[in-house]
């Protein structure tokens, strides 16, 4: 029997919603993540919440201050796995890979922020570790950034390039509807 895919919610912390985080894309990403989270919970699917705790005191995500806390609507339930990380990649310095393997989870559905940082870093590792990894395009978002040559890139451009880096090599980029279908198919197989 195939296990259900695991929903991995990356860095949905209060600091990500503050203006100083920067200009972003996908303004409805939070709503899409909320819907995915609700769907996973209704079907008792595995969920991992990832939280960045920075080593830099000036960071929005310095431990024990408001920016590092989960946003209220993304509070983990007591039985849901929480991974705390000091670097963008949720697999580094954590038990995430071994926990997923212990749960016999092979399929990962990744959402959160930011697409080109913690999402991309985590997804690259997931793909390299052999997990079947899916990134929900509209349930992630990025921030505007200046590229290496000094050109300002919009949040949409940063997001699109990051998804292009991932799709087909480390993961498959999918829609929210496809994510629902993946879970539904696994629920149907387990009955």
Topology:
Blueprint: E1 6-10, H1 29-42, E2 47-52, E3 81-85, H2 96-102, E4 107-113, H3 115-128, E5 132-141, E6 145-146, E7 152-153, H4 155-166, E8 172-174, H5 176-190
Parallel strand pairs: 1-2, 1-4, 2-3, 4-5, 5-8
Antiparallel strand pairs: 6-7
Helix pairs in contact: 1-5, 3-4
Keywords: Hydrolase
Protein name: Nicotinamidase-related amidase
GO molecular function: hydrolase activity
Q: Could you name the ranges where pLDDT drops below 50 across 5 or more consecutive residues?
A: none
Shape: globular
Number of domains: 1
Largest sheet properties? 6 strands, parallel
Highest-level CATH class = Alpha Beta
Instruction: Using the coordinates shown, work out and report the CATH topology.
Output: Rossmann fold
Which architecture name does CATH use?
3-Layer(aba) Sandwich
Determine the structural class based on helices, strands and strand pairing: alpha/beta
Q: What is the number of helices?
A: 5
Strand order of the largest sheet: 3-2-1-4-5-8
- Rg, Å, rounded: 16 Å
Number of strands: 8
The span between the termini is: 10 Å
In sequence order, what are the helices and strands, one letter per element? EHEEHEHEEEHEH
Strand content: 15-25%
Query: What is the fourth-level CATH superfamily?
Result: Isochorismatase-like
Overall average residue pLDDT = 94
Can you give the helix content as a percent range? 25-40%
